[in-house]
Amino acid sequence: MFDLIREGGHELAMLCHDAESGLRAVIAIHDTTLGPALGGVRIAPYATDEDAVRDALRLAKAMTYKASLAGLNLGGGKSVIIADPARDKSEALLRSMGRYVQVLGGRYIPGVDSGTTQDDLRVLALEADRVSCVGADPSPFTAAGVHAAIHAAMRHLHGSPELTGRRVAVQGVGHVGAALAGLLARDGAELVLSDARMDLAEAVAGQLGARTVEPDQIAAVACDVFAPCALGGAIDDAVLGALDAAVVAGAANNVLAEPYHGVELHRRGVLYAPDYCANAGGIILLAEELLGHDAATAERRVRGIADTLDRIWRRSRVEDLPPESIADRMAEERISAIRRLGPPPVPQRGTY
Ligand code: NAD
């Protein structure tokens, strides 16, 4: 266990057990150099305890990078509850989790993840002082961030963010994908939509005057932008073989099935918006809410995703490295610079 934590550079992995509620959970904190560790609470029936620990550690580290690159004063954390969300979720389970979160005194701030809802976080908040995702739905902000990323890609390639007549293929029209499609339709983009639930795709397409294709066809659509907004691993060997897009920019996490898929996109000259940069709109909203700021401030900051991508792509071109490698470096550079500052100059005991 300690090898795992040392290799990942994590600060903490806490195992939580409560016999009464049946809680078995892991809270992982990767790095709090920039601020308290924000990250969702995932509920999933892991096959082994080690799978749960590994998942929590991996996801916590990803949150550190996401918050750093977005310029937020937050660190990275994540927690997992080993349970079936459909069967095992109860008020007692969630409140028990909230008590463990409270033990950490605000160093870990939980949010929504797969298996939890905003209502679940409201239950956690009965026990823990600092909880996110209890206000506005972050999905429209995530969509606005991806929209900004697509504009930035157009500007990078064509000198103008203009989308009129450009074709965008959207994979998955759930919370984020449908909102993104709406924004793109207003821009005059030609939309091709798909979803594992084709009834959903047809309904959104009907509203926006778009066309649909079957889920196994969407990655092969000849288009300016392929926007993966469904599950992770959207770019794998099969998709790479079929992809006919100039840009890949979407909301999904872990878009690249393996790192070499990103290297291959770069080699082919396909402009990739690193997933955790393009989909940072939601976390930007959550950070602004924690600071007590309004939605307008969050919207302004979400538009800043375009500038971050611009810096990533320019550096990617100069250094001839894939954008996701540059994004990782930029996130690490910011953390290192702040770490070197040392502790803030607070008055010491007895000096005031
Ligand atoms: P969602 O569950 O509302 O929507 C996902 C949609 O994808 C569903 O309609 C589902 O039917 C569809 N889908 C699943 N498999 C598919 C496939 N193989 N082909 C086509 N469609 C498929 O989720 P969401 O909140 O819209 O999030 C979309 C993605 O963005 C997820 O990967 C999520 O992790 C990521 N993300 C979301 C947010 C947010 O604010 N909601 C923030 C950051 C990242």
Describe this structure in words.
Helices cover 47% and strands 17% of the residues. The protein has helices spanning 2-8, 49-69, 85-88, 91-103, 118-124, 139-158, 175-186, 198-208, 237-242, 259-268, 275-278, 281-290, 295-303, 305-319, 323-340, and strands at 12-18, 23-31, 37-44, 75-82, 108-112, 167-171, 190-194, 211-212, 223-228, 245-248, 271-272. It has 2 domains: 2-124, Rossmann fold (3-Layer(aba) Sandwich), CATH 3.40.50.10860; 139-321, 3-Layer(aba) Sandwich (Rossmann fold). The chain is α/β, with parallel strands linked by helices. The longest helix is centred in the N-terminal third of the chain and has 21 residues, at 49-69. It is built from 15 helices and 11 strands. Bound molecules: nicotinamide-adenine-dinucleotide (NAD).
Summed up:
It is built from 15 helices and eleven strands. It has 352 residues and is α/β, with parallel strands linked by helices. It has a six-stranded parallel β-sheet with strand order 8-7-6-9-10-11, sandwiched between helices. The chain has a five-stranded mixed β-sheet with strand order 1-2-4-3-5, with helices on both faces.
Biggest sheet: strands, sense, closure? 6 strands, parallel
How many β-strand runs? Answer: 11
Strand content: 15-25%
Per CATH, the superfamily of the largest domain is NAD(P)-binding Rossmann-like Domain
Small molecules held by this entry? nicotinamide-adenine-dinucleotide
Q: Which stretches are low in confidence, meaning pLDDT under 50 for 5 or more residues running?
A: none
CATH topology of the largest domain: Rossmann fold
Distance between the termini: 43 Å
Question: How many independent structural domains?
Answer: 2
- What is the H/E string? HEEEHEHHEHHEHEHEEHEHEHHHHH
The CATH architecture of the largest domain can be given as 3-Layer(aba) Sandwich
Rounded mean pLDDT score? 95
